[in-house]
Amino acid sequence: MAEKESRLILVKQDGSTLPEMKLSQSLELISHSPEQTQRLGIHIGELALAGDIFLLVGGLGTGKTCLTQGIAWGLNIKEYTLSPSFVIIRELYGRLPLYHIDLYRLDHIEEVIELGLDNYLYGNGVCVVEWAEKGLSVLPTEHLLIQISFLDDTERSFHLKPSGKRYLEILAQLKHLSFNSQERVNC
Question: pLDDT tens for residues 121-135?
Answer without folding.
Answer: 888 999 999 988 888
